[in-house]
Amino acid sequence: MNKKQVRKIIEALEGSANVIAKALDGEARLAARMAGVLLRAVSGLLISRTPEEVVELLTQMAAEPAERAHLDVTRDALQRILEERRRNESSET
Amino acid sequence: MRSTLLLLLLATGCGGSALSHHASAAEASRELNRGAVEALETQCHARVTAAAEDTTVDVDQAEARAREILEACEHAERVQHAFAAALDVWVGALLAAVANEDGFDTNASLDLARRAFIFYDDIQEAASRAGVALPEVPPIIARFIDRGAP
Q1: CA B27 remoteness from chain centre
Q2: What span, in angstroms and rounded, lies between the C-alpha atoms of B142 and B139?
Q3: For residue A82, what pLDDT is reported?
Q4: pLDDT of residue B150
Q5: Per the CB < 8 Å rule, is A69 touching B76?
Q6: B115-129 pLDDT, tens per residue?
Q7: A59, CA 20 to 30 Å: which among B56, B96, B119, B132?
Q8: Residues of B in contact with A55 (CB under 8 A)
């Protein structure tokens, strides 16, 4: 089995982990996704890419900034819940 | 642009294998970052809203607890942005290395990676104060960043 075949297998496993992750929720989903991350790391760190693949990968990554977390939805939800609770409390009294 | 970079990489022969490993580590680190973002957004939301909806305490107490959790989450959010920015700098440096005729500086690249992962430790610490568990750094990535080899 050559490196290319090994990488194909690892990529298939990584794809499966991501498919499983989509079907799960919460911590199980995260665990499945992290399994995919681990496979990707193993594949990339143990099997060198060709120069073409390196350039392609770096170009793709540079084109799309790393993801940023946004808690706006949580802030809005907190505000809404508190307003609703206070409205309910004042209507009861 | 991609073909120009490829020609440069082939022409300079600048540490192709090392660069490949660093690019792969950066890719896996970005995936780890994606997992952290997902965990932060979903778990912070669940914990903040649960605290705000807690009917065993009055609304003022519920608000105080929810805001305490939100504050820790917002700190984690800010540090996560710094981590993401540091990863972007690392990727930018790797891309620049392709065109660098002097060769690929593995130490400089590892230094950027290590600086980025200091932020990841801080995100985990801030998130844990909110009761949120972020994914651990996979050992293969941690080892690579520590010693520069898989």
Answers
A1: 10
A2: 5
A3: 97
A4: 67
A5: yes
A6: 999 999 999 999 999
A7: B119
A8: 2, 5-6, 9, 98
Per-residue pLDDT, averaged over B46-59, amounts to 96
Residue B111 phi, psi dihedral angles, 5° rounding: -65, -45
Burial A38-56 (b: 16+ CB within 10 A, else e): bbbbbbbbebbbebebbbb
Average model confidence (pLDDT) across chain B: 88
Q: Comparing C-alpha atoms, which of A39, A69, A40 is closest to residue A57?
A: A40
Report the amino acid identity of residue B102: D
Model pLDDT for residues A13-71, shown as the tens digit of each residue: 888 887 888 888 777 888 888 888 778 777 777 777 888 889 999 999 999 999 999 99
Residue B117 contacts residue B1 (beta carbons within 8 Å): no
Which are the contacts of A23, defined by CB distance < 8 A and separation ≥ 6?
none
Residue bearing tokens 């498919």: A19
Q: Do B98 and A58 touch (CB under 8 A)?
A: yes
Instruction: Point out the residue among B24, B80, B135 whose CB comes nearest to the CB of A45.
Output: B24
The interface predicted TM-score (ipTM) is 0.84
Q: Identify from A11, A25, A61 which residue to disrupt to test chain B contact, counting B C-beta atoms within 10 A and taking the largest count.
A: A61
Angstrom distance (rounded) from CA B97 to CA B21: 13
Count of Cβ atoms closer than 10 Å to residue B140 Cβ:
19
Determine the Cα–Cα distance for residues A28 and B37; give it in Å rounded to an integer. 16
